[in-house]
TrEMBL record:
GO terms for cellular component: membrane. Keywords: Hydrolase, Lipid A biosynthesis, Lipid biosynthesis, Lipid metabolism, Metal-binding, Zinc. It catalyses: a UDP-3-O-[(3R)-3-hydroxyacyl]-N-acetyl-alpha-D-glucosamine + H2O = a UDP-3-O-[(3R)-3-hydroxyacyl]-alpha-D-glucosamine + acetate. This is UDP-3-O-acyl-N-acetylglucosamine deacetylase. Its cofactor is Zn(2+). One of its GO terms (biological process) is lipid A biosynthetic process. NCBIfam families: lpxC. One of its GO terms (molecular function) is UDP-3-O-acyl-N-acetylglucosamine deacetylase activity. Pathway: Glycolipid biosynthesis; lipid IV(A) biosynthesis; lipid IV(A) from (3R)-3-hydroxytetradecanoyl-[acyl-carrier-protein] and UDP-N-acetyl-alpha-D-glucosamine: step 2/6. It comes from plant metagenome. It holds the Pfam family LpxC.
Length: 270
């Protein structure tokens, strides 16, 4: 739950997929005319750390961009401490494949959730830019064997010099600079320190997807597969899942030994 505490009267904005009102440059939650923008990186950090009960107070419309990744949120949340509650965690397990699609042929973009005993994601990107094309355009992460903290959390958002002004004019990334994004001109990455991962571009898309899908409201027991997806398709997918009630069930694991490895805190905190 997000709370805008900077207003004359506090406004609550539930972190739910149907509360998303804008996905053009980031995922934006709205309650009437009140907005909270760029929620995806914080939501991704919460999902990655297994936090499913939290209140977030904000004194501005945009969640701070930090360094453009979820890494700072992970550090601060772990530093504050994560409390285990005396109740079984509830998961949303996908029973039927749900897919959303936009466009046809080579221009098609799509994303789907399919049954899987754990949590895994695979993502393909296709950007016609030399700096991005020089890196891997595909990544697959299965949290039974991979670490969110080590392998996903520090992947930064990316964009082009000519997009920075567009973001600012939209009221987003107000602190946007080389300190909190991978910025490129027509040919190369402008950040002096280069990339944090060899496949940082596609890994940031996975980071975003984790955050967008966490607006479903529960940790997922599923596999996410996507090609050129973004905030809009991710939100469409989340809504499509919730609307097709035959496609999922809520489950708990009373016996810790039965919890799939990908859903245990070991992968989240490693």
């Amino acid at each position: 739950m997000f709370h805008r505490v900077d207003l004359p009267e506090m406004v609550d904005l539930p972190a739910v997929a149907h509360g998303v009102s804008d996905t053009r440059l980031a995922s934006v939650l709205s309650q009437g005319k009140v907005r909270v923008s760029t929620v995806e990186h914080l939501m991704s950090a919460l999902a990655g750390l297994g936090i499913d009960n939290i209140h977030v107070d904000l004194t501005a419309e945009e969640v701070p961009i930090m360094d453009g990744s979820a890494g700072t949120f992970v550090y601060l949340l772990r530093s504050a401490g994560i409390v285990e509650q005396n109740a079984p965690k509830k998961f949303l397990r996908i029973l039927e494949t749900v897919e959303v699609r936009e466009g046809e042929g080579d221009r098609a973009k799509w994303a789907r959730l399919e049954p899987h005993d754990g949590f895994a994601l695979s993502f393909s990107i296709d950007f016609h830019h030399p700096a991005i094309s020089a890196t891997s355009n595909f990544a697959e992460i299965d949290f039974a064997t991979h670490s969110y903290t080590r392998e996903i959390a520090r992947a930064r958002t990316f964009g082009f010099v000519n997009e920075v002004e567009a973001l600012r004019s939209a009221g987003l990334a107000r602190g946007g600079s080389l300190d909190n994004a991978i910025v490129m001109d027509e040919y190369r990455v402008l950040n002096n320190d280069g990339l944090r991962y060899d496949d940082e571009f596609v890994k940031h898309k996975i980071l975003d997807a984790i955050g967008d899908l966490y607006l479903i409201g529960k940790p997922l027991v599923a596999r996410y597969v996507a090609c050129k997806s973004g905030h809009a398709l991710n939100n469409q997918l989340a809504r499509a899942v919730l609307e097709r009630q035959s496609a999922w069930e809520i489950v708990t694991y009373e016996d810790a030994a039965l919890v799939p490895k990908a859903l245990r805190n070991e992968w989240q905190l490693a």
